[in-house]
Design brief:
The structure is a single chain. The radius of gyration is 16 Å and the shape is globular. The relative contact order is 0.17. The protein contains 5 helices and 12 strands. A 6-stranded antiparallel beta sheet has the order 7-12-8-9-10-11. A 4-stranded mixed beta sheet has the order 5-3-4-6. Strands 1-2 form a two-stranded antiparallel ribbon. Helices cover 22% and strands 21% of the residues. The protein has 208 residues and is an alpha+beta fold.
């Protein structure tokens, strides 16, 4: 049985045989010694990382070590509420900080903790449900995830791509004035509007 360590655009951690293209964590240990997920997060520090960095090697879900989580791509990780890691993805982290500065209308680059505090209130609610909000499709930038008919779609190059654990499987067109539930936290959507580009799985370019 595959480990429960894959994350979907809703932020849920689930089991699948499919491999992810990015790794991340939620600030610490989420699993017990039986490899079961026993908490949704450990801290507000939700990050997304490279699969490989400086030849470091980890045994996934080792006892009392932080829980490695995996995502189809960065767009999924951002929809779940994770930001770029400041160590292994320094260039992307700095680009994210710059977009955050622009959307906030301030002169200084934000610290990681400053972003994490705001992000945490926009990704999960008091009772731990996924926080969403409504918007029209034509008001949303590329890289945003939305929910349509109970499915998760990526807005990409003027179309909606249906997400699956293995990759994007179908391209669909919808009326641009249609109101949808937005899965990607609002601060991250605003970062997209101010220049941050989310990397997407190769299937996004191939799906028809």
């Amino acid at each position: 049985m595959p480990l429960q360590n894959r994350v979907n655009p809703y932020g849920d951690v689930f089991r699948t045989q499919a491999r992810g293209s990015m790794m991340g964590n939620r600030g610490g240990v989420l699993h017990n010694d039986q490899y079961e997920i026993v908490r949704d997060f450990k801290s507000r520090r939700w990050i997304t990382c490279l699969l490989e960095f400086k030849n470091r090697h980890r045994v996934v879900m080792s006892p009392r070590r932080y829980t490695e989580l995996f995502f189809l791509d960065e767009a999924v990780a951002l929809a779940a509420g994770h930001r770029p890691c400041a160590e292994c993805r320094r260039e992307q982290f700095n680009a994210f900080r710059d977009a955050w500065r622009k959307r906030s209308g301030v002169d200084h680059l934000p610290m990681a903790d400053e972003m994490d505090v705001e992000l945490h209130t926009t990704r999960i609610g008091v009772q731990r449900p996924k926080v969403t909000y409504e918007a029209t499709l034509d008001s949303l930038p590329d890289g945003t995830f939305v929910r349509v008919d109970k499915n998760a779609y990526l807005l990409f190059e003027g179309a909606l791509l249906l997400w699956s654990p293995e990759g994007y499987v179908r391209r669909e067109a919808y009326p641009q004035d249609e109101i949808v539930a937005v899965l990607t936290p609002k601060p991250i959507v605003e970062c997209f509007r101010h220049g941050y580009k989310a990397s997407v799985h190769e299937s996004a370019m191939a799906v028809k």
